[in-house]
Amino acid sequence: MVDDDPGLLKLISLRLQANGYLVETAASGRQALGRISARRPHLVITDLRMQGMDGMALFDAIQKQAPALPVIMLTAHGSIPDAVRATRKGMFSYLTKPFDGRELLQSIQDALGQLHPEDPALPGKAEDWRAGIIGESAAMEALLEKARRVAQTEVSVLIQSPSGTGKELLARALHRASPRKEAPFLPVNCAAIPENLLESELFGHRRGAFTGATSNRKGLFESADGGTLFLDEIGDMPVEFQAKLLRVLEDGEVRPVGSSESFPVDVRVVAATHANLEQAIEEGRFREDLYYRLNVVMLEIPPLSRRREDIPLLARHFLQQAGERGCRARRFSTEAMRTLMLAPWPGNVRQLLNVVEQAAALSPTPVISDKLVREALRHRQDEILPLAQAHQEFERDYLVGLLQATAGNVSRAARLAKRNRTEFYRLLHRHELEPALFRRE
What is this structure's pTM? Predict the structure, then answer.
């Protein structure tokens, strides 16, 4: 709820809370944008006339940041033409002041009508369609909202994102959120199957079709009938086979190897790749017509470096899993978590999992130290650190060296560093270093 009138803001918030809604408020458009970036709401209600960024400017900014987020605008009678123009641009609705409370509640209910009780995306629903996907960042929430919407359709989806981001997890979530959720979900890695076996694996074969074909065998398209087939690493599919896949997608029919007859299949295809398929098209390694058949809607999972606020959630989740496998570590030290937050993560979530597992397995205490995390990171990357991170690490190591050399005597350490005590204490506080821990008995 966004309004620069604190009285009206409080009044409407109390009314909505009394009707069971969780309400966050913002006193300006810019403040609202910041909160939307941190945690995506289900609905925005905003006044039109506000100081600074008004409701129209806020709506335009929301359209760029979260185009699927419904917005209801409150407007005075004289501003109705502006509100009408906004609804034509995609605003859900507008209410003229003074408005009836029941009218507002009905408008909210209509705006949230996309979250039906049958909808797997409804918060608190027992069936968790996004199970296994850990994250509350605005980037992930926007992606999942887009995925939830496209899941209700039958269009083909292409997931294009770097390795280690969780493409199969997203594909499974799409399947669980779709009307096909009761039918099979079958994944296949196109890069892992030899070219001469790929056709048989996907389309099946008849007995005698080739040496070793001693019986009829169903392909994955037939096995996934009514459900979803996930074609991972589609960019590595041989060019010669791409034409055959395209024909199946266009005709909706499969012809097993060694058969003269085709039969219909009802399969939704979700494809994924870490490669740049547009570049592969230019280089002749991928068919353009197949690309457009697969890429009706593209979903891009953000790399871990663009969703750093999710790192603590992911790290704790992986640590809990490690504990279930016998590791005694139960939490990260403050410095260890900071190192995780600042690492570049070229290997994304998969690399984070490996680092957490190694640090947890080697930790002799319930608290994972910063040193163990750094060692695990070094084993998995040989990169130049970003300047800010390198500076921070040098500064911390320098302070630790001073405290060790002076046995925790802050006055002596500050003199050696040529800094006054107040500034030196500020540096220690920044790195959460306690001088008392360096004192010798």
Answer: 0.63
